[in-house]
Amino acid sequence: MSAIWVEEAKFGRWLEVELAVCRAWARRGIIPPEDLAEIERKADFTVERSQELEKTTNHDVVAFLTDVAEHVGPASRWIHYGMTSSDVLDTGMGLAIARAGALLIQEQAALTQTLRQLALTHRDTVSVGRTHGVHAEPTSFGLKMSGFAFESRRNEERLRTAVAQCAVGKLSGAVGTYATLPPDLEREVLEEIGLGAETVSTQVVARDRHAELITAIAIAASSLDRLATELRHLQRTEVREAEEAFTVGQKGSSAMPHKRNPITAERISGLARVIRGNAVAALEDVALWHERDISHSSVERVILPDAFLGLDYMLAKSRQLIDGLVVYPERMQEILESSGGLVFSQRVLLALVACGLTREDAYVVVQRNAMECWNTKVPLRELLARDADASAHLDAAALDDIFDPSWYLRHVDVVMQRVEAL
């Protein structure tokens, strides 16, 4: 990924565009065959020379073209013929996005499969579900991970769509009128280099495209943040249902030798904040003056490489995190049981309603006993067995059935069939 965003690669894409346009002009008889041969044989640049020239020109494309001209000689007069800077800048950017986007989609797809496997492995691993951070009802760790797997798949689709609509170029000249570059030449060149064409380009490709792309990247980063946040919570000492792999020789703290911290997940959460900030900057780039200004240019030099590199790194680290995740099913069972059966309160409520109580009366009975369970630590099942209003309707066999966590997982296979199809 980093190789796509270095200056050498950027100038290489500019030259790729310029040469494709020269070939198109030659096919139309504008550039003599001998000049095209000279251009294709000699066209080259160095980053150092282009940057040196830019100190004088204060214009990156002009500096680059001067550098190329020094290599080519007199035939260089045809290079950039009829073009404006944005033709090469935006088309070159389209190439970068197409190539970098393919890598992102590949990494996102790999993470989807890693999460899929974790979900299938723990399809029947019972754990407690939480809402507001408080125990809710039993679930399975596999079911929990299934949601992340499908979210990752949605991010694949979002990235694929966003990259495709942003992998476009424009070769329509100054202010986009095609006055010096005919539409058929644009179509021919963009087909050759594998890009779509901006339908109405003014002098630049419309920046709502790039805003959608960076927003899609930010959404993918936020999904990784959600995954990392979940795993950070599960690694807390008082929870410890799962934890990051801790390698031989690794140190968790300079002061406390016992520490094993969720550093990878925290890194992922932190980088997501940076990428979300990039999305705000991309949205600010949409509004340009008239046919163009360059207020977006300085922003994109930062946010485009950063967003692609950041998400690529986050995806690789997330996959590494999931691959090495240590899961503790026994601890999950302990945590599930630690609330004294409070997680079964809805089943008790529904059972009482099925026995003939109104929902309001049943709620009073269950909540009364649940609050006593909270305060006294006496298990909810024991309290219900003592409660006259509850025991009048629910005998020991009924309570055994109600307090069986496997009941909550009876439809997990339906979800897992969807996971298997990922």
Give a verbal description of the structure.
The protein is mainly α. The protein folds into 3 domains: about 80 residues, Fumarase C, Chain B, domain 1, CATH 1.10.275.10; about 230 residues, Up-down Bundle (Fumarase C, Chain A, domain 2); about 60 residues, Fumarase/aspartase (C-terminal domain) (Ribonucleotide Reductase Protein R1, domain 1), CATH 1.10.40. Helices cover about 65% and strands about 5% of the residues. The protein is built from 18 helices and 6 strands. A two-stranded antiparallel ribbon has the order 1-2. A two-stranded parallel sheet has the order 3-4. Strand 1 and strand 2 form a beta hairpin. The longest helix is centred in the N-terminal third of the chain and has 37 residues. The mean pLDDT is about 95.
Helix content bin: 55-70%
Named at the architecture level, the CATH assignment of the largest domain is Up-down Bundle
Strand order of the largest sheet: 1-2
- The overall number of domains is 3
Mean pLDDT: 96
Q: What is the string of helix and strand elements?
A: HHHHHHEEHEHEHEHHEHHHHHHH
CATH homologous superfamily name of the largest domain?
Fumarase/aspartase (Central domain)
**Number of helical segments?**
18
The major beta sheet can be summarized as: 2 strands, antiparallel
Fraction of residues in β-strands: under 5%
Which class do the helix and strand fractions yield? mainly alpha
